[in-house]
Amino acid sequence: MGEVLAVKRIKGLLLALAGSVALSSCGASDTSYEVYGQFRERLKTLGRGNEAAEPGAEPSRASIAAFTDPLILARVDRTGGMSFIVRTRKYGATEVWQSTDDVSITLIGGILRATRGLGDDLMSSDVMPLGMQADSGREHYYFGGDARTRLVTFACTRQTLGTERIIVLERAYSARHIAETCQAGETRFTNEYWVDSRGVMRQSRQWVSRGVGYVTLKRVVD
After folding, report:
1. Is the N end or the C end of the chain the one with fewer CB atoms within 10 Å?
2. Sheet of strand 94-98, all strands in order from the earlier edge strand to the far edge
3. Could you count the other beta carbons within 10 Å of the beta carbon of residue 148?
4. Which fold has domain 20-221?
5. What is the pTM of this model?
6. Which residues form the signal peptide (predicted)?
7. CA distance 117 to 133
């Protein structure tokens, strides 16, 4: 993801969601680009005390102590690149999160719905919220080499693995651990979700594509 806010600089972790411009013409429920503009400079200051940290190390909780707006620490597992992202749009359960250089992801109920800027992006997806069905499916849309949108339909199974104690940026939470295993042909992945007692998706590890692999998202400020 472009500018490293916590540890190091990663270009293009997550670019602006396709369709976010179209979405902005709909009724946004609670936030806007003006909000992001206000947060931009504050986001740039996050983690500046962590430059001496070892590569791949997370920022400290102290580095975000003054930040009270919703905040996620995002990491591309394959590269180790990390950045904070802030919420700029909310439409019911759908949320758009952006970094300082206007890259973004979209989540619905905490579940990854789309990415940009990763090279092999998830253009959009049709996913079931957690708790809806134990066995369900997913529809993922990708661009092919011919610049046409390609649909991949996955058969998925979800199961609850129990309650665990997790640490999210130096803070402990009790969270329900849910695993979602999906397959389409030779492509198989397992997403993991940790939902706290308030129903907040506190942490997740979610698959984007063959080319990108997994992205880990940690909700550090509510």
Report:
1. C
2. 111-115, 104-108, 94-98, 82-91, 71-76, 213-221, 201-209, 187-196, 171-184, 149-168, 135-143, 124-126
3. 8
4. YmcC-like fold (2.40.360)
5. 0.81
6. 1-27
7. 31
